[in-house]
Each structure stands twice: as structure tokens, then as C-alpha cells.
Amino acid sequence: MSARFRRRDAQETFLQAFKFFALSSLSVIAFDALASVASVALGFPYSYTAFGSAALYIVLAFFAARMFGFWAAIALGVVMGITDVTIGWAVSWAIGPGRYDVGTLTPSDWIFTALFAAVLGAIYGLIGGSVGTFARRRRPAGEPQP
Question: Does residue 10 sit within a domain?
């Protein structure tokens, strides 16, 4: 295979990964919006939606590992965590839950929260990526190994 074809394949893979990461980030924002509306409308604590958020991270990391490899799943978890703590939090704040009183959220608190969300996203990416990588390598009985 020539270098030109390998470069084109790498560019196509990068574009596919970029689209997947962007759609995954949008799904986090949409989930935050829906969870915020449900929390306000039904009166349950917004923190209960953390389980759904974790499931979303893990499932998308699983597919990222299947399509792009293990490290992409971890990177996706970090990107989703950062998206969640920035745009997702802003959307949630605008709807109602996640709102802090003026002056109570200091820059150091926000930085700690952002780092925590990125690390937690990486952990979720590790979980989904591990399962996705393992499932990617398994072959049905009778199918030849590459």
C-alpha cells in the first residue's frame, strides 16, 4: 500500500473519529438538558441523573474502542467529561438544576470540578474501552483468527 493511500485512510479515520467525538459531546449536552428538564418537572434531585450520564459515557466509550481503539475510548471519556462540566453545566444551570448562588463557585472550585469530571470521564472511558477492546478481539467459534 502506498503512502498516499495510508495518508488518505488516516485522514478518513481522523474525520470519522472527530465526528464521533462531536456527536458524543452533543449527546452529553442533550442528556444534561433532558435530565435538567425532568428534574425540574418531576421534582427529583438532579444528582440522580449521574447514573444515566455514567452509562452514556461507558456505552459511547465501548463503541469508540470498537471503532478507533482503546486509547480513543479513554480520550473520548475525557472529552465528554470536559464537555459535561462546561457546556453541559451551563445548559443545566440555565434550565434550573446545577445553579449556584452568586459568589459561591470560586475559580479553584470550578477547576477542581473540571479536573474531577475529566478524570471520571477517563475512568468511564477505561471501563467502556476495556470491554469494547475485548469484544473487538473476540471471534465467534469457527471464525479464523487474523
Answer: yes
Q: Which helix (H) or strand (E) holds 146?
A: none
For the chain, the domain total comes to: 1
Residue 68, amino acid: F
- In a 3-state reduction of DSSP, which class is residue 98? strand
* Tens of each residue's pLDDT in the chain, 146 residues: 555 556 678 888 889 999 999 999 999 999 999 999 999 999 999 999 999 999 999 999 999 999 999 999 999 999 999 999 999 999 998 998 867 777 777 889 889 999 999 999 999 999 999 999 988 666 565 555 54
Domain annotation covers residue 144: no
Instruction: Confirm whether 60 is domain-assigned.
Output: yes
Residue 43 domain boundaries? 3-137
Amino acid residing at 12: E
Question: What is the phi/psi pair of residue 20, to 5°?
Answer: -65, -45
CA-CA distances (angstroms) from residue 5 to 1, 13, 110?
7, 12, 45
pTM for the full model?
0.85
Q: Is residue 143 part of a domain?
A: no
Query: Using CA atoms, how far apart are residues 101 and 40, in angstroms rounded to an integer?
Result: 17
